[in-house]
Amino acid sequence: MGYHDDMFHLLKALGIGGDAPPAHKGEIHDRIHAELPRLGEERTEYLAAFAGLLARAAFGDMEISAEEDRAMQACLRDTVGLDDSDAELVAHIARNAAEALGGVEDYLLTRAFNERAQREEKELLLDCLYRVAAADGTVSVAEDEEIKQIGAALLIPHSRVMEVRGRHRDALEILRGMPGT
Questions:
Q1: Which label site among 12, 91, 100, 149 has the fewest CB atoms less than 10 Å from its CB?
Q2: Tell me: the pLDDT tens digits for 80-105?
Q3: Which residues contact 43 (CB under 8 A, 6 or more apart)?
């Protein structure tokens, strides 16, 4: 028996070892689960990741406008299938977490979404990210960069990210004032 095995057995005998605690799934997950327990664990994890990534993109410029908040709710209704009141609640939870925590949970969100979403769902989310960021009339350079980082973290090929981005080119701040825009 090695040192680690000995320590494990000693800690267990003292009542402080044993099974590892469940992995922390993040503030957004915990709040959605507390407010909407009827959704079940799998749906809660998916929604937390989806909504959290929407809020992350919207907060890329360090603020979430009222228009962006409404767009988050619309994506949660139209893409994820929540009713109006649940979409409003989930958007509110995600917005508060983004504003309070900044990027603290980014890894948890992208990991959870990668584990649960198919390629098509990831691309639908990516389109929602641009719709949310553009809701106030402009996708800022900071929001655009944040969305491209999210796309990379979701393992979406760069060419597909650029294709989705192209659908929102009229709102991209970086292209404003350039010929042909």
A1: 100
A2: 999 999 999 999 999 999 988 776 67
A3: none
**10, pLDDT greater than 90:** no
- Of 148, 43, 153, nearest to 109 by C-alpha is 153
Domains, the chain, in order of start with CATH, read 27-169 (1.10.3680.10)
- Token pair for 79: 């893409």
Cβ neighbours of 150 (radius 10 Å): 24
